[in-house]
Amino acid sequence: MNESTFRKLEYDKIKKMTVDLTVSDAGKRLAEGMKPSLSKAQIEAWQTETFEASELLGSGASIPLSAMEGIEAFLVLLGKGRSYTEQELEALSVWLASVAQMKRYMRGKMQIAPTIATYAESLDDCKQLREELGRCIRYGRLTDEASSDLAYVRRHIYSTEDKISRKMEHSLSKYRSSLQENIVSKRRDRFVLAVKRELRKQVPGNVLDESASGQTLFIEPADISELQQELAEWRAAEERERTVVLSQLSQLAEGYAYALETNAQAMASFDFIMARGKLARSYEGRRVTLSDQPVIWLKGARHPLLGTGSMPLDAELGIRWKQLIITGPNTGGKTVSLKTIGLLVLMAQSGLLIPAEEGSVLGILRHVLADVGDGQSLEQSLSTFSSHIAVLKEMFDVADTRSLLLLDEMAAGTDPSEGIALSIAVLEMLLERGSLVGATTHFNEIKSFAARTPGCQNGRMAFDPGTLKPLYRLEIGEAGDSHAFAIARRFGLPEAVMLRAERLLTGKKEQAIDFNAEKDGLVWEGANDQAEFDEQPYASKPTSYNVDRPLGAGKPSAIPSFSKPPVLTEQVESASHSPLITPKRVFQKGDSVWIYPLKRAGVVYRSADEKGNVIVQVKGEKLSFNHKRLKMYIAKEKLYPGESYDLDIVFESKEHRKVRHEMGRKHVEGLEIILPPE
Question: Residue 594, by phi and psi: left (phi above 0), alpha (psi -120 to 50) or beta?
């Protein structure tokens, strides 16, 4: 697991969402450090915390989390012998009150969240310190009750200030005609009058300041100078006593250093746990079952960034197959399916709940690597293909039975034939190593590989051919078409271009068929004949392995071992006597055949004529195809019970058969059977 994979699978976005849901800097740092674990016990503990947090939030309770403003700076200075300010000590007092509130709150939530409620028991609200701070500090200032000496000094300050105030009011009235403004001002923390410069001699006293223009002098009247000196002395005494009280309170806080540190860690953990709970509720996350086996069984899974309206995904790896090859049209959701599987694995191993239905099971995976996106890098001079190869090299370095490897658009970025061959070789090697692989492709050769290889499975993204719109639903068991022509028509490409493209594609397929069908009238049999599998109907994939127990009924059993791919013998009578090359069987009425141009099966209505043309019934229509365009699918002997079976039942309607029976008994005027032209 690395940052590149986290970014490609959008795990970094999930982490940022979690960070944004925290309320404190300490909780934010815990969220920023979130990453998948390899310890099942650790993951289960995390998931329990997240589940209980989600349940608490769902109960409608308002959880008393603390932003812990200023607390971290305070704790850093603990033990340094520093005397704290009123503001710092008041912040500590407010935080300790929130700690006590959290402890009381969690005691009442033991039934809903027993685990994290137990965590709250480790909190120490430092009652003596909290009460002392509450008594001594209010609104960022020491109270008169902080000490008797401080109260004594402040009484004298209040008395002296009252005397000065009365005398200043008297001076305002006495020297009104000499004043620039009829107000009392302060200069250098002493009371003064604003006197006009030219009338300065009429107001006895000391000039403490003057205005910028020099037209106003600020004079301390002579009759209050002595009182102001007395006030300054009392204020100095107040500052000395303030220092003594703050020092005593700081020493008291130092004695609770360990408890304060423990509280800070616990409150940050509560913040992080609740952020995970909030995240889970944002996408209806559920707790996943963890397995000791490296398996993935997702039911109704959704990508957490797409919202609850996205199409649910059912996916399986490591149980009945190790590799899932997803096909279908562009914009159909293939890449999103891969990213959903990988992201949910990372989220689950990070202790997060995932948007999937109950019963989903995930094993603990050691490596999750993804090759999603073209990866082209101008800075590193990497082409799209080079970037794919670089990621593949990294995958092979770690590939084992506990690796999840996600490959988007296999065989892309280079010559298709070479890319296809390389892709199949890669899949074979990864299958040999037992890695879990999810891949997407458009190439029929890779689809065919998955269809015939035990341990591999095809899946397709559903597509509505009527509306030409993707359905974003993954269907397991069959490969899908790219629907390139249908999509191109939908976007308005000229019809002449589309018709020409269809002729070119048909010609290319027929050329490949002719090449295989005309080798001395023989057809190659065996797993190494790639051309034979290119047009193979995917529903006929052989299966040589079983599941001991359905996963939905409980935890999965041991992963089954996969045997080597068996040889297909659709045109061979007996597998025990099958040579590598066998004569081609003549198509007979009733045989089920695969029609290459239509890419579907039909039933032979009339054997080949002198030109080799065969009449085949397809969906009620009788069409003519050259025998080279056909391939035996299922012989009639395997379809119908005995030689005497009436094949007219297959080719004629019930009404036609009744008329034919009546005509066989007697002549009926006007009775006739009209068949459509072939």
Answer: beta
DSSP letter, residue 551: G
Report the SS3 class of residue 481.
Answer: coil
- Nearest CA to 142 out of 254, 234, 248, 229 is that of 248
Return the SS3 of 247: helix
The span from the CA of 378 to the CA of 621, in Å, is 56
- Find the distance separating the first CA and the last CA of the chain, reported in whole Å: 62
The helix or strand, by DSSP H or E, that contains position 361, with its residue range, turns out to be strand 361-363
Between β-strands 205-210 and 216-221, what pairing exists: parallel, antiparallel or unpaired?
antiparallel
| Contact predicate 150/166, CB 8 Å | no
Q: What are phi and psi of 470, to 5 degrees?
A: -70, 150
Secondary structure of residue 623 in the 3-state scheme: strand
3-state secondary structure 313-328: EEEEECCCCCEEEEEC
Q: Hey, what are 564's tokens?
A: 């080597």
Q: Which tokens sit at 115?
A: 């685990």
Q: What share of the chain is helix, strand, coil (3-state, %, to 5)?
A: 45, 20, 35
Strands 613-618 and 600-606: antiparallel
Q: Residue 610 class from Cβ within 10 Å (0-12 exposed, 13-18 middle, 19+ buried)? A: exposed
Tokens of 159: 């008395």
> Please, which pLDDT band fits residue 49 given cuts at 50, 70 and 90?
very high
Q: Is the distance from CB of 61 to CB of 109 less than 8 angstroms?
A: yes
Residue 249 DSSP code:
H
Residue 352's DSSP bridge partners are none
Q: Which residues of 326-354 are buried (b: 16+ CB within 10 A; e: fewer)?
A: bbbbeebbbbbbbbbbbbbbbbbbbbbbb
Residue 614 and residue 607: Cα distance in Å, rounded? 5
The predicted structure's pLDDT at residue 311: 85
CA angle 365, 366, 367 (to 5 degrees): 95
The predicted pLDDT at position 340 comes to 94
SS3 assignment for 95-155: HHHHHHHHHHHHHCCCCCCHHHHHHHHHCCCCHHHHHHHHHHEECCEECHHHCHHHHHHHH
**Which residues on adjacent β-strands are paired with residue 235?**
none
Question: 512: which 2 tokens?
Answer: 């490949």
Residue type at 216 in one-letter notation: T
pLDDT tens digits, one per residue of 245-257: 999 999 999 999 9
pLDDT in tens, 528-537: 333 333 333 3
Q: How do beta strands 403-407 and 367-371 pair?
A: parallel
For 542-556, what is each residue's pLDDT tens digit? 333 333 333 333 333
Q: Which residue has the tokens 């095809």?
A: 458
**pLDDT, tens digit, for every residue of 404-446?**
999 998 867 677 788 889 989 999 999 999 999 999 988 888 8
Contact 253, 85 (CB under 8 A): no
pTM of the model: 0.69
pLDDT at position 334 is 87
